Amino acid sequence: MAVQPGAEAPTGSEADGTDEVADLFRALGRQVKVARERAGMSQKELGDRIGYGEETISSVERARRTPQPELLVAVDRLLACGGLLESAAEDVERAKTRRRVRHPEWFKDYARLEAEAVEICFYSTLTIPGLLQTRGYAQTIFTARRPFLDEETIERRVEARLGRQQILTRWPPPMVTAVIEESVLLREIGGRAVQREQMRHLLEVGQPRNVEVQVLPLKCQGHAGMEGPFILLTPKGKPQVGYGEFQSVNRLITDPEEVRMLAARYGSIRGQALNPAGSSALIEKLLGD
Torsion-angle region of residue 186: left (phi > 0), alpha (psi -120 to 50) or beta? Predict the structure, then answer.
């Protein structure tokens, strides 16, 4: 069954309170700007002092990006705002839960199955699997999309992706295995700092018993995954399904024979990849280099 891309679902602001959330973010953005200008700092100078990019500061001040609690706390303490911004951090967290982050229509079938899965298997050749991505890495992925996504859509997609990650910590958790091409770890998506943060996150997320991260080394001369990346999902009490993406084509695979072949390929790929311990050692070596 092929699922084609569609338009973003409407938000229904009156029903979910997103107008109030937007007003809060605009107010906080103005407060950050006033505090920065009072201190005689440019957006770049403020960003450099607290560890954020100039574009992030600009987007927060214009309410084009969610003002993350960590940023508000950092600005408050650096610019001596007397706790005004820091006290708003909890309001931001509550507001983020009220804002309904919606997946694109074509992705909803997959997202629904993923949410109820007891096992998820990733084979990734271009990027880190979404369930294992950091905010900075996901932000880069969506910002690089062509045609361009507007800032609000980017933020919505990032929040949706991060929101999906809660299934990793629920009880009982799904069994998650991910085979990632070594080339994915070498590509500095978002820049060196973002990529290093992402690799450190892989080491952390791979520690629980229900998550296994494996790296398929570059020296592997031939393997069963050379036709491209894919995902295998096993929903509770339902048959296993597959999922694949290629450019603008997104396909949920339910035919039993096709799914069986994907599962066989995945087993072969895992057999050729480094085991979890060896994969962690390689990631640590890359971080050291």
Answer: alpha
Number of domains composing the chain: 2
Same domain, 143 and 80: no
The domain that contains 194 carries what CATH number? 3.30.870
pLDDT at position 195 over 60: yes
73 plus 129 within the same structural domain:
no
User: Is 177 in a helix, a strand, or coil?
Assistant: strand
Let me know: does 6 contact 106? Beta carbons within 8 Å: yes
Percentage of residues in the chain having pLDDT higher than 70: 88
Q: What is the pLDDT of residue 63?
A: 78
pLDDT digits (tens, 9 = 90+) for 156-169: 899 989 989 989 98
Rounded distance between C-alpha atoms, residue 288 and residue 267, angstroms: 30
Token pair for 80: 């001596």
Q: Are residues 19 and 116 in the same domain?
A: no
Q: How far is CA 132 from the centre of its chain?
A: 7
- What distance in Å separates the CA atoms of residue 77 and residue 94, rounded to the nearest whole number? 22
pLDDT of residue 102: 55
Residue pair 189/127 in contact by the 8 Å Cβ criterion: yes
Give per-residue burial for 41-62: e unless 16+ CB within 10 Å, then b: bebeebbeebebeeebbbbbbe
Distance CA 182, CA 218 (A): 6
Cα(74)–Cα(131) distance, rounded to whole angstroms? 27
| The overall pTM is greater than 0.70 | no
Output the six-digit token pair for 23: 């007003």
Q: Does residue 226 form part of some domain?
A: yes
How far is it, in rounded angstroms, from Cα 233 to Cα 97? 27
For 90, the token pair is 């909890």
Alpha helices in 79-210 (DSSP H): 89-98, 108-115, 135-143, 151-164, 182-186, 192-205
